Amino acid sequence: MTKKEEFTTVAIYSKTGDGVETINFQMLASLANAARRCDIDLNNVMQELKLEIDMSGDPRKRMSLACFDSLFKSVNARKPSRHFPLIFGDSFNFDGLPELATFVTSASTPQEAMRVLDWSPKLLHPNLHFQIFNLGNEVALEVKVFDPEGLYNDLPGFVEASMSAVLKFIHLLSPGSHLIKRIEFRHAPLTAKSDYCDVLKTEVLFEQASNRLVVDSSALDLPLPGGIPSAHLKAQAVILNRLLPDVEEQTLSKQIRRMLKSRLSLLSEPMESVSQSLKLHPRTLQRKLKVEGTSYAALVGEVRHELACEMLKGSVMDIETIAANLGYSDRRSFTSAFVTWQGISPREYRNQQ
């Protein structure tokens, strides 16, 4: 089993100056919905935990794992009518992220939409880690909850809520499909097994080696009705530029790569367009990139290569459209470049996937 991808984020917890935990509006909406479905007085829980509403508007702020642990314990003590962690995940407020919903629902294939998992840790919680494993006929999405202090690693209630939220995302992507084969949890059942089947509606195994959701790999490439490539690309640009701004110090080459990926039109424009956006003189930009051991032309080529492979594997766009999206004047120029990168033509590459 080979690890394919891993995504992490930096933790920024919601606390006031005196250390009181806060909750943002999107999370509050999800919790309130879940509380109603479980017949729980959320206001009473918030008062007990001294939870306040976050007014900073910082979308990166999240409740700490310690706070989630206290929340689940407080709700459970009130004997909810349904298993709260699963209902909480199933109540995740995708409507509060219309760009994300558009990205998912306009995808041409499940594989294309799965890129949202790159961003989910930042959109859901900074201690949430996803790893994707290719298992031949199956693909496993492993969910890990990492606590630097080691107190709340793989917190069961949080893992269950995260798994339920991912499952909701998949159902949003392809309603009524049979993508999901089973769900596996490391921990023992926290409630009756029938409660898991009632919400998750798939086979659920407990006390397994890892927490993961397993899907049929062949189903990931099936075309989805209603795919809108142009809307998909525009939603991606909005997500990268507005919902997931880079907050960590990074190299100039990483900045440029992100810009090129989020604004594909730049791939066909001169370097001056990028330098102007970065407020750098073109010669300064070239000099800085040289110090980093690369060049603007090399970055454009790398981004085109990466996106070309993604589009050929994860979408039903024809090769002419892919070539145009990547800034090539015609299919022949794109094919020539792709053969240089991969040693085979775009059509041969797609047929091998």
Automatic annotation (TrEMBL):
Where in this chain does the record put each HTH araC/xylS-type domain? 254-352
The record, for SMART domains, names:
HTH_ARAC
The domain of life is Bacteria
Q: PROSITE patterns, per this entry?
A: HTH_ARAC_FAMILY_2
Keyword entries, A-Z? DNA-binding, Transcription, Transcription regulation
Q: Where is the signal peptide?
A: none
Among its keywords, does the record have Ion transport?
no
Q: What is this protein called?
A: AraC family transcriptional regulator
The record lists the organism as Limnobacter parvus
